Amino acid sequence: MILEQLMLQHRDPKSALAVAYLAAPDAFPGLPRRIGNIRVKLLKIPSFEPCTAWTLFEDQGTFCVRRIEWNQREDPETSPGAQGSDAAINSSIATTLLDGLTALTIPVAPKTREAGIDGVSYSVIIGDYWCNSEFAWWVEPPEEWKKLAIWYDRAIAAFEAVLPVRTPENPEA
């Protein structure tokens, strides 16, 4: 849902390609083509900061996490486009995260909803092309999804702990 909105907002070829890499991180050029299953994808789409997608892949009991970042506020003619990195993640950490996600019980349709213009949108996409579900919220999750948001924060922390440090933006630009 969030990625579809980004696709509608960013139609120039370079931006559209960056959004496509957020949607299909396994196809990011310069990083190994990932085989196996996408277990979960987490999105953070701020209004004024770079967009980030973290994807957890599993292949025969081994896990890898990939981060794709794209600064949608940069000029598509001069920006480097999306950036990607990935790293192995300990299978016990990945399994614990997935078990925690599977153990959550939340309503599919929450009673409360927030709407707004500027802020941050978040999404948890579980599964792959064949069978998936997405839970997305703006700024604060609905009360019924607070446990999912806590899990989201834990997962991001675990992913960032193994991923390479981000390349800082050029301070002279």
List keywords for this structure.
single chain, alpha+beta, Mago nashi protein, 4 helices, 6 strands, 29% strand, globular
Number of β-strand runs: 6
CATH architecture: 2-Layer Sandwich
Mean pLDDT: 86
What is the rounded Rg?
Answer: 16 Å
What is the CATH topology assignment? Mago nashi protein
DSSP strand (E) fraction? 25-35%
Number of DSSP helical runs: 4
Please write the CATH class name.
Alpha Beta
Listing every helix as H and every strand as E from the N terminus to the C terminus, the arrangement reads: HHEEEEHEEH
Structural class: alpha+beta
Helix % is 25-40%
How far apart the termini lie comes to 33 Å
Count of separate structural domains: 1
Low-confidence region ranges? none
- The quaternary organization reads as single chain
Strand count, sense and closure of the main sheet? Answer: 6 strands, antiparallel
Q: In one word, what is the shape?
A: globular
Strand order of the largest sheet: 4-3-2-1-5-6
Structure, briefly:
With 173 residues, this protein is of the alpha+beta class. Helices cover 28% and strands 29% of the residues. It contains four helices and six strands.
